[in-house]
Amino acid sequence: YKVTGVQTCALPICRLWDALPSEIAWALFADPQHLIYFANYLASPFEFSSNDAGAVLLLGRDGGAVLVADNLVRHHLDLACVDDARGPVWYQGKRSAPRRQTRLVESALEAMREKKVDGVLGVESSSVPQGIVEGWFSERPARKSIRVDEAAHRLRRRKDPDELALLRRSVRAGEAGFA
Question: What pairing do the DSSP bridges indicate for beta strands 24-29 and 6-7?
Answer without folding.
Answer: unpaired
